Structures are given as structure tokens and as C-alpha cells.
Amino acid sequence: PKFASLFSLILSISYNLNKARVQFCNREAATGPMKLFVSEGNPHCLKVLAALEVTGVHCGVQYISHEEKVVPFLSRPSFPALLLPSGQHLFSSNAICRYFFEVNGQESNDVSNQWLEWETIVLQPVLHQALHMAVVQGKGSEVSRVLQSPLNFLDQSLSKGSMPHLTGESVSVADVILWAALYPVLSDSSLFVRAWFDHLAAMHSCQSAAQKVLQGKAMKNYMQKQSVPQSFQCRDTQPSNSSPAEEGERAVSEEEMEAATLTWRKGLTSCSLATERQHPLLPEEGKRNILLTSALPYVNNVPHLGNIIGCVLSADVFSRYGRLRGWNLLFVCGTDEYGTATENKAREEGLTPQQICDKYHAVHSSIYKWFQIDFDFFGRTTTEKQTEIAQDIFWRLHKNGFLVEDTVEQLRCENCQRFLADRFVEGTCPHCSYPEARGDQCDKCGRLINAVELREPQCKVCRQTPIIRSSKHLFLDLPKLERQLEQWLEKSTSTGDWTANAKQITRSWIRDGLKPRCITRDLQWGTPVPHPDFKEKVFYVWFDAPIGYLSITASYTNEWDKWWKNPQQVELYNFMAKDNVPFHSVVFPCSLLGAQDNYTLVNHLVATEYLNYEDTKFSKSRGVGVFGDMAKDTGIPSDVWRFYLLYVRPEGQDSAFSWADMALKNNSELLNNLGNFINRAGMFVTKFFEGCVPEMDLQREEKKLLAVVGWELQQYIQLMDKVRIRDALKHILNISRHGNQYIQVNEPWKKIKGGESDRRRAGTVTGVSVNIACLLSVMLFPYMPLVSQTIRDQLNAPQSCIGTMLQGTGTFVCALSAGHRIGTVSPLFQKLETDQIEALKKRFGGQQKPAQSSVSAPAAPGAEVKVVGGVDPEKAEQLTKAVAEQGEKVRALKAQKAEKDVIAAEVSKLLELKKHLALAEGKNAAPAPQTGKKKK
Amino acid sequence: MGGASTFQPITLVSDWRSSPSVTNMALRELASLEKYLGLRKPNKYSTQGDKKTPVLQNNAAPPLLGLVTIACHLVKEAKRPELLGDSAESRAVVQQWLEYRVTKVDNCSKEDIKIILKDLNLYLHDRVFLAGNRFTVADVLMYYGLHPLIVDLTVQEKEQFTNVSRWFDHIQHHPGVRHHLPPVAVLRNRIYTSRHH
Asked: Residue B159: is its pLDDT beyond 60?
């Protein structure tokens, strides 16, 4: 068949089992050719290939597509399959393995039978679920939780026996089957069945078998075609919202219960965190000093939710968490303000670049403030410090010989007296002859274009034909720094927490070979190049912008170099979306390495994937998606926005924002799970115990619960330490699920009406529950700071609980002891109703702007994001103002006798604004004949 | 938790749930198998975990867990190794159907039933027993496992899966096998000759 890459390989005997090989030539092997059918990516096929190699049985192997039927009597394709010499088919992977071993003289016994049965009945269903999570859903972190119980069992069995293998001294069929079954999930984890697992993995036969079927994406392809594991089917595809009853198959040992009880009794420690930060924060001896940056948002636009989750929100959660952990942490960020895009925007809005920056810097600040992003300092790149530091780095690179000169051909508009950045040129596409191709890309055929290749190029501003001019530029000599870079990368990626995508993108950049990169531009709006031969030029943004981290820190404190030239004491975390990775992992480190001034280089590079909007992309021009400034207009609290964005944080894979899902998560997780538990716990104290925490007499059930909650807390801390923000959130929700179940089972509302011992029981359940609520408030703090504080206010919790709970590996102590008086309890969350959500979905679903204004036309300041379905008085008012301002400007230019084209450009802007005003006022504006406008 | 006795480790959750006590089918099967094999001294059994996995208690050796594992052990104990297959091939086939019984037949869904019967019907088209021409323990356990499915079939359905019905009837009349199960009536002659009923 066409898809089967037919190659039947005769396997060499790769592993000697200390068994006489003669035996495999038994009578059956002689009667007919045996053939093993496997399909790529199918984890079960690994078992049989490994068994085949280990036993050295001679058998042809054929690779076949998943969809093909081999076993004649089975109605569904089933792999692996073995055609026996007699012409019969075996379709069970374990039976095939047994057969190979038996042919090789090793018959199975009771012990191996038992392992095989355990594998099929207990391990496989769990494994199927785990693989589905890891491979299809990309939730690798859940795997260890799901597999905990069977792995514990395996581990205990291995540790009890004195033998290195499952059934004795040598490798048996059980070892191979279990090894192969666990291979996909264990090969990159650090679990304790390790010694046994590694031993088998080191066997050449096992390795080569794994390479044959499970390489690359094969398993993902296979898994995606498999049925969804049963325990999944009723669930959402988003991170699990199942109850612990389904997933908490975790055994709690006596030791764990005792340890948890001891911790609980410790109570609050007196050492409390300094709640007030003393600015300026500087590195301190003996502390973990963390410098944390989030990618500088570009100033010329309003950030959308994807931007927010990708950098500032993720960094904020981690910095809040770090402060709770007692780290000495500085979180800086700011707006990236230089560059073509700003000049462009300034032209569009009829403002100066500086005015644009001022305006949008304020927009960004207020959005982040609303999202409660707690920067230590939020600065900007258009400062004196930026010039000073960028020029210093430049001169150092120059002095050290890492800059090279070259000439570049560029389009220059003689009329406007300037070189044209790619976005300022339009012309006919050299590939498809589309007449309105941009200088960097053709919108019709999508090909990338070098601006000088455009046919009939036009300056976008004045419509004159630009000329090709060569211009001298400076390049950073990346190839010369490559070795140094690689050495540093090797160390940083192996010791720090780099996300997988960050490592992978970096690797591919290095693999493709580094080329010199131009660091200068013929623009005005930028940091001036100080070299006399390159006057009139500015630094290219990619060189300039990351230096913003340093200059922004310098704007915060004069002692900025204690952070930035101190790699011995400081750990640097960079947060960003994946598109920004190469600049932070390759280009900027090269600048700093070449400058040779003992700079602090990134230790942990945390990159998110993309967040889509209802399965499409956020698009400003199409009005699709929610932008930062609109979130507050929805009436949904900032904390709920934060929660949902973090819940769907594109961690490990792209994810999507969906209104319906947001409502679902709000109603199921926040309202019914978390809020419900905390509220019930508090209400019981208020209603049944006059607002005072009752005596708690811990029974076995409580001790178990403490151990379970303690374990979830530990997981939370482990994940957070590794910046697995989304995964850690699940453990908070697990705790409240455990709590709800605990209350549900014990029914304190009934017991309180019972006899003395029942009432005591009600007291214990209430007291333990309200203490769990207190723990939850601390764990929630990084995610939902306001809700977190509200809970502690309602419980009147001592401030010291914040510092205590997240110490070490997590310490769940009794923070509210018997007799503690709580405050007034009230509900924390509100339901999101379907019609409310439908309305929001409609509002942000792409019809935000009428067709006319969705053209990339100049919009009035601040008005572009408003809904314009017909008459919009608010917008009209803003536009009236903008028209007046623009009119002023045109008059001023005329008075100054400015250049004709500059005036013409401003006049066209004014006309455009007037047209928009007419629309907003409900008048029917005749479409102005605009030659310079792009069609959509 | 004690070692090999934790086939399904005891979980916090299972403590919180109250699982209704049902008569354990697997234990009844094992008792019937013991009788069929003519084992004089009945073994001691218990069950474990949510799934009520059977456990064979043994004074001399560690306990054995799992229906198939115990069944194979009993066959060996009765010194009837031919019931596990008389060649490497047939032993693999027997193990395969034993596995099929506990993974596919047990706890199968309504749609699965049809597929199982259809596949088996095709498989048994040219076979007397599951492992070819000899009766094995695979036939016994598959018979026990399929019994609740076959009982619910209508006469037409039984006709549709004629090979399965023939095999099933054959096994239930095999001396000493049926024991704890009621006989199922299987008509050997077709009543319905076309499918539109």
C-alpha cells in the first residue's frame, strides 16, 4: 500500500540475555515466516519491538499506517499485530511479548503474569489518560499526579525486593513490557523508579526500539487519533475541572499524616515579611536577589489580552509569589517608545512622536494599574539614561571590535528628505504584481519583500517616487561572538529555568548560523548614534529596546549597576511571549557579552505561547478581541480577569480566550468551588460559633486531609518555583475541592444540632475548614490580590500568615486557632449570566467598528477602541476635539511656512477626521477620494 | 500499605465513598473453575480496591492478585498445563484471550458489545475453541465473561452471531464448566432467515 514504508529489517542480536540462543529455533519458527506489524507513534508497538530486540527472535517487521487493518477478524485496526507461523494473528502486545520470550526459552511464571495483568488493568487506563494529557493537551505537569498511584506501587515493589528486576535477577517479559509502557512518560521525568528504568533504557535493544517507533511527532499524531480517555469525556478540554474524587488517586501514608499534623500544630512563626517595600531595592548579601523584567510593550498601541498575559501579568504573578517567598526581588518594566512605528503613529494621529509616547505611556500605565500589575518601577525608553547607557554599550562594542561597517541600499524620498522605512513605502509586488504591496510584505501573496525590489515604489507620505540610495550602516558582528554566546547559553539553559520554547527557538537560531545584524537606522525618532561617521542615524530598536531594561532601572535608582553588573549576586528572569525570544537569548546577550562590562545576563527565560481570541487572532484592525482598556468596561472585576487569563495562560502550547469558557470557569471554579468553600467555612463560624473559631480535635480524617492539602501546597510551590503559573493554579483549586468534599461528607450543619460529640465534630470540621480558607487566601495572593486580601479581612487573619505558609516546601499551619474572632463574611464572587456573556461576545467579536473605520485609517485619539455602531455622542465629542486640534496644527504649519507635503499630509489627516466626525454624528459623509489609502 | 497486597492502593477517595457491597463475580468464577479443575481443597480468597480485584491468599508464598493470574495458577496447581495451551503459539493465543476478557469484555459499553460479538463471530468462524481445536482455560473465562452479554441478547441477535452462539452453547455444555451460571438457550436452527425483523 502507498503509505506503508515497507522495510522489513532483520534484527541483529543486540543484547545477550545470558540465555542459550539455540532455543529460539524451535519447531514453530521453522514452519512459516513470522511477521510483526507495527505503526509509528503507537506506544504499544514499543513493547513488542523492545521484546523482539531483547530476545533476538528472528522476525520480519513491517511498518504500517494506523488506519490499516491487519488482523482479519478485528473490525478496528489494532497494532501491534503478529502473524504467527501457523497463519494465526496475535493482536495483544503483551501476548506477542510473551510469545517472543517463550520462543527464546523464557516462559512466564505467576509473578510475571501478575505484573502483566496489573499492566493491562491498572496501569494502561491511567497511562492512556496521562499520555493524552501530556501529548495531546500539552499538560505534561499533570502526568506525575495522574500516575502517582501506580508508580508508587511499582516503586514499593522494586524497593522491597532485593532483586534489580521485577521478577528476579535478569530481565523478564514483565520488565520489558512495563519499561516500554512507561517509556513515553518517564523518559524525561525524574521519578524514583529511575534506577530500574534507566537500567533498562540503557540497554541498546530498548533504545533502538524506542527510536524506531516513537521518534519525533509520531506519538502525538497517533494519540490524537485515539479515543479520548473515558475519565476525560465529560470534562472540559481546558485544564481539568474534575473533582478530586476522579483524580486524587494518591495514597496518603501514616508518616505524611503525622508530619502534616506536626506542621499544623507549629502555628504561626513570628518572623513576618517586611510588608512595606523600602525603595530603592538593592541586592542584599545572603538573600536570593532576583531581577525580574517583562518584555517592554510597544508604546504605539493599546495592549490586548495576549500581550498582557504574555508579559506583564505573568511577571506580576511571579514577582508577587517571589516576595511571599521572602526573595529580594525587583520588578521593572516600561514602554518601548522609539522607532518607525511611533513615527508612523504620530503621523496618523497628527501628533509629534513625543506626544504619542506621552499619551500611550499613560494609557499603558493605567491599564496595568487596573490589572493590578505591581511594578517596582514602570519607566520608558525615551530618557537621558537610555542615551547614556546605549551609547556606552555602543562604544564598548566598537572599542572591542565587534562592530562592522557595510553599505545598505535603501529607498530615499528626496521630497521628504529622508530614508523610507519599509512601512513608508508602497508599490507593485515584484512577485504577484499586486499594486499596493508594502515595503516589507505583500498583503496579497504574503511574500516577504525587500523594499528596493518593489516596482513603482511610492513614498506613503507624499506619493513621490523615492530613489535608491546606498547608506552606510553599522552591524553587530554576531558570528564573532558566537562561541562566547554558546558557552554562556550552555550554562544558562542548563542551570536556569528556560521554557522549552525558549530553548528550542534559541537552538534553531544558532543552528541556522548567526549573521551580522544592522544596529543603525536612518530615522529621527531614536537614540542617536554617537559615532561622527553616523550622525543623523539612530539605533535600530532591537538593539536599543532591551537596553531599556538597564536604563529604566537607572531611572529607578542611581545604583542600577548593583543589579545589572552583578551576575554573582543577581538572578535575572525575563518574561515575554515567544516571538521575543531571539532578542533576549541571542542578540541582546551578544551586545552585553561584547561590551565586556560584567553584565548580568538572563538566567531564566520564560516565554509563553500565543493566546488566541475565540480561536482566531486578536486583531486591532478588525476590531477582534479584548484590549486592555476595554476589560474594565465589561464590569467583570480585575481579579476575575486575572484568574481567567492565568487559567488559560498559554503555557507550553497556544491557548484561547473564550467568553463562554470564561463564564464557565468563573461560575464553576470561582463561584461554586473556591468561593463556595471559603464562604461556607466562614459562615459556619459566624452562624454556629458566634464568630469565634471553635476547638479542633483532629481525628484521622483531619490528619489525612491536612496531608492531602499539604501535598497540594507542596506541588504549588514546586511549580511556582519553576514559573509554571497555570499548573500551580490547579492545585489551589484542588485544595478547595478537597475542602468542599470534606464539608459535604461531614455535614457540620446537621452535626451542630446533635449531641455533645456531634457538636464537637462540627466544631472541628468548621475550624479546619476556615483554616484551609486562610491558607487559600495566601496561595491566591499572586493570582488574585484583591480577593486574597478580602478573604483575610473577612477572616480577620493575622498578617503573619502570609509569611508563614509559603516557607520552605510549604507549611500549612493552624493560623486561626480556637477562640480567634473572624470578621464579617460575605460572598466573594458573582455569577456571570449567559446573556451578559453573549452580549460581551457580540460586542468584542469583530463588529466593533463599522467597515469604514476598520480601514487602517487615522482614528481620533482615544476613540478608536470604542464601539461605533451608528451614532456615538461620546466619540463625536472626542472627534470634535481632535478636529479642532488638527485644524490648529495645520494653521500653525502654514504659518511656519512648513514644507508643502508636510502640510498636505496634515490636511488629509484633518479631512479624514472630519469624515469620521460626520459618521459619528450620524451624518452621511461622502467617501472622500483618498488616493493614499489602503483598501481592505 | 503492604507491598504486593496493594494491587489497587487504598486511596483517600475510596475511603470517602461508600461502595455498595456486591457479590464478587470474579470470586464465583474462581470457585467454579476450582470445581471444574477438581481441586479438592478450596483456596482462600479476598478482594481488594475499588475494582474488587480478587486476591488468592497463600500461606507459603506471597498472595497472588488478578483474575487471570490466579486462574493460570489454579490450572498449574491442578496439573493440567494443556489447558494453558500445548505450544508456544497456543499459549500466547490463550493469554491473549484471557487478557481480552479482562480488558475488553469486562466493563464494556453498549456499543462495544456489538463490536466484540461481531469480531468474535468472525474469529470463531473456522474454530471450535478460542485456541484452535483444543479446549483451554481461555474458553472457560471468556464464557464466564460473555455470559451476562449473551443472556441479554434477543433471539435474532443470537442468530446474527451464529458462530459465537455455537461456541457459547458448546462451552456451557462442556462437563463441569457452567456451575454458577444459568444455562442460556441457544437455538441451533435459524428461525429468522432474513434480517428485516
From this structure: yes
Which candidate in A34, A44, A90, A110 is best for mutational testing of the B interface (most B CBs within 10 A)? Answer: A110
Residue B186's pLDDT band (boundaries 50, 70, 90)? Answer: confident
The radius of gyration computed from the CA coordinates of chain B, to the nearest angstrom, equals 18
Q: Are A771 and A815 in contact (CB under 8 A)?
A: yes
Beta-carbon pairs below 8 A across chains A and B: 121
Chain B, 107-146: which have a CB under 8 Å from a chain A CB?
115, 118-120, 122-123, 125, 132
Is residue B175 less than 8 Å (CB to CB) from chain A?
no
Res B194: pLDDT:
44
Question: According to the model, what pLDDT value does residue A894 have?
Answer: 72
Give chain A positions within 8 Å (CB) of B3: 156-157, 160
pLDDT of residue B189: 54
- Using CB atoms and an 8 Å cut-off, which of residues 217-246 of chain A contact chain B? 244-245
CA distance B145 to B139: 10
Domain ranges of chain B: 3-77, 85-172
Chain A positions in Cβ-Cβ contact with residue B120 (cut-off 8 Å):
73
Q: What is the pLDDT of residue A128?
A: 84
Segments in A586-675 forming alpha helices (H)? 588-595, 628-631, 638-647, 659-665
* Contact state of A156 with B72 under an 8 Å Cβ cutoff: no
In tens, the pLDDT along A30-66 reads 446 789 998 887 888 888 988 888 888 888 888 888 7
Q: Which residues of A touch B66 (CB under 8 A)?
A: 113-114, 117-118, 121
Q: Please say whether the structural domain B85-172 has been given the CATH code 3.10.20.580.
A: no
DSSP for A496-543, written as a single string? S---HHHHHHHHHHHHT----EE-EES-SSSPBP-SGGGTT-EE-HHH
Q: Does B156 touch chain A (CB under 8 A)?
A: no
Enter the C-alpha cell of residue A847. Answer: 463588529
B8, B99, B109, B126, best to mutate vs chain A, most A CBs in 10 Å: B99
CA distance B48 to B26: 12
Provide the pLDDT for residue A214: 63
Cell numbers that stand for B140 in this block: 472457560
Domains belonging to chain A, first-starting first, are: 21-234 (1.20.1050.10), 291-392+499-608 (3.40.50.620), 421-465 (no CATH), 615-848 (1.10.730.10), 868-920 (1.10.287)
Q: Are the beta carbons of A251 and B1 separated by less than 8 Å?
A: yes
* Nearest C-alpha neighbor of A860 from the set A811, A817, A918, A899: A918
Q: Where are the beta strands (DSSP E) in A141-274?
A: none
Of A338-342, B121-125, B142-146, the one with minimum mean pLDDT is A338-342
Query: Does residue B161 belong to the interface with chain A, where contact is any CB pair within 8 Å?
Result: no
CB A778 within 8 A of CB A802: yes
B3-77 CATH pick, 3.40.50.300, 3.40.30.90, 1.10.10.10, 2.60.410.10: 3.40.30.90
pLDDT confidence of residue A223: 64
Residues 6+ apart with CB under 8 A from A808: none
DSSP class of residue A921 equals T
How is residue B192 written as a grid cell?
429468522
More confident residue, B52 or A793: A793
Does the beta-carbon distance from B7 to A248 stay under 8 Å?
Answer: no
Q: Which of B1, B30, B75, B96 to mutate to test the interface with A (most CBs of A within 10 A)?
A: B96
Q: For residue range A694-730, list pLDDT tens digits in order.
A: 999 999 999 999 999 999 999 999 999 999 999 999 9
Bridge partners of residue A60, in order along the sequence: A35
Low-confidence ranges of chain A (pLDDT < 70): 1-32, 138, 140-141, 160-164, 187-250, 270-275, 615-623, 846-877, 895-898, 918-936
In degrees and rounded to multiples of 5, residue A405 shows phi and psi of -105, 145
